[in-house]
Amino acid sequence: MSTIELSSLSKFYGNQCGIDSVSFAVKKGEIFGFIGPNGSGKSTTIRTLLGLLSPTSGKATIMGMDISTEGATIREKVGYLPSEVDYYSEMSSKDLLLYHAAIYRVQDAEHKIQELATYFQLDLDRRIDDLSYGNKKKCAIIQSVLHDPEVLILDEPTGGLDPLMQNRFFELLERLNKKGVTIFFSSHVLSEIQRMCDRAAIIREGKIAAVEDISALLSKQMKKVRLVTTSAGNLPLPDGAQNHHQSGQKHTFDYVGPTQDLVTWLSSQAILDVTLSEPDLESIFMNYYQS
Amino acid sequence: MNSVVFKKELKRNRKNTVIWTAIVVGFTALILSIFPSFSEMGEEMAKLMSSLPEEYAKALGMDEETWSSIIGYYGTYYGIYITLLMGIFTASTGATIIGKEERDGTAEFLLTRPISRGSIATTKLMALGALFLIVYGIQTLSAVIGLLVFGEDVNWSVMTTMHVHGFFLVGFFTASGVLMSSFLSPKLNYMGPVVGLIFGSYFLNAISMAAEKVSWLGYFSPYHYLNLTAKNGVLELNLIACFGASVVSAILLWISYKRYLTRDIVG
């Protein structure tokens, strides 16, 4: 049985489409990526799963329970990290986390909160209102894991976190995943999905474009190559290169194919400098559809 | 009902409740404390009353009793100010107790906890009821103490009827406030519509009492049915109006509750 299963789930706001016939399944113990550009329907899908939005049609279950009828029981076992953190501004982080713990009847809450706050370097006594975006996010991370959920739903989880904290957060996720926690990881940052996930669903304009293993996704992934050669002559391009532009010694092109082949090709060229970058999501989608 | 959320709601509204309770209790104490001075000037006040246009006095619910008996005097101010103040507090709290969560974005936090929407709505309405009872109860207690201290031969039957009517009147305004938050945008400041509803109800009744020609306007105001001022020392309990106000308030709350169960929290 899948831990999260969506079957033709749709949400329309009047005539406007939020998501349209979204279907995929997340296996137990998996870290599942959910990737798409801003406004593609990621948050709408998550908000529908959590009962904040009523689905227009279709069905979804979490741990076999229907989201429309068993929402409260589902949420008992789910931790949710929102993309935008809007908490009670008059409360301190500690009060908010204790409030959360009281609702979930968490045993030894104070100790657990202190331990996680130390790990994420969060000052618990400051009012939510006075916290920076990054610190609010840390508070949100702590509440999402405090009650030992079986499923974690993360919506753009790293926004506002510095690289050190991102790393700590990823390590925490890996530890939780080893304990059997299923993680649904929504992001528009492909490198995060690459690092954390086993499989991913790609959503675009409210519709699922594909559900792929990360390795398959990477094999179809395009890279932007910028290089400076030692002379301004013609450059014999590798297989998989496209959209080549040359200006003197400077070359740019998109590359689709095995990364190893690109590295081999680069090592055979007379190059002064090289930059490989991740293209934006739209380019990935265009490439994905073309392939 | 969820006891953790219930306590949180009471705590969250504590400051407002203390302020509004202090206002209504302070006002009650003030008006009752100055009654002896008015009473001593009985004849002069009666003359002053007779010099006022009849329509004006009627609109304010004033007559000779206003200055000669403490309960007549108290009833006039209870109807004009105290129920309005309590109504504004409870209706605005009713409008914000659910809507504020959505406006501030905290609805997402609350609704992703393992509590059903029905339970959240019930808890919030119970907290609202508790706040209403606190303000109403303390004001009533302060009025009883004030009447005992500053009055003689208080007609307690009129006082009881006045406060029973006041209870259902303020209760109706509270339920209307809750209903407003179900239909108006959460980004809207509810104070305007709340004050409009309460003052509108009051003035509809005042105008209907002042002028025969437009007396029908009173039918659209709850003040018309739940009368707060005694005439010739008599104020009859209108049980049908109390029952009607209860039914209407219950319907308004039920509509709000049903709407809350399916309302999309867009974020």
- Regions with little confidence, pLDDT below 50 for 5+ residues of chain A: none
| Number of DSSP helical runs of chain B | 13
Tell the overall outline of chain B.
Answer: elongated
CATH C-level category of the largest domain in chain A: Alpha Beta
Number of strands of chain A: 14
Largest sheet of chain B: none
Which architecture name of the largest domain in chain A does CATH use?
Answer: 3-Layer(aba) Sandwich
Q: Average pLDDT value of chain B?
A: 88
Instruction: Give the number of DSSP strands of chain B.
Output: 0
Number of domains of chain B: 1
- What is the straight-line distance between the termini of chain B? 25 Å
Overall pLDDT of chain A: 90
Describe it for me?
The complex is a heterodimer of chains A (291) and B (267). By secondary structure, chain A is an alpha/beta fold. In chain A, 34% of the residues lie in helices and 31% in strands. In chain A, strands 6-7-8-3-9-10 form a six-stranded mixed beta sheet, with helices on both faces. Chain A has a four-stranded antiparallel beta sheet with strand order 2-1-4-5. The relative contact order of chain A is 0.14. Chain B is mainly alpha-helical and 267 residues long. Chain B has one domain (3-262). Chain B is 77% helix and 0% strand. Chain B has 13 helices and no strands. The chains are: A alpha/beta (291), B mainly alpha (267). The interface between A and B is medium-sized, with 28 and 24 residues.
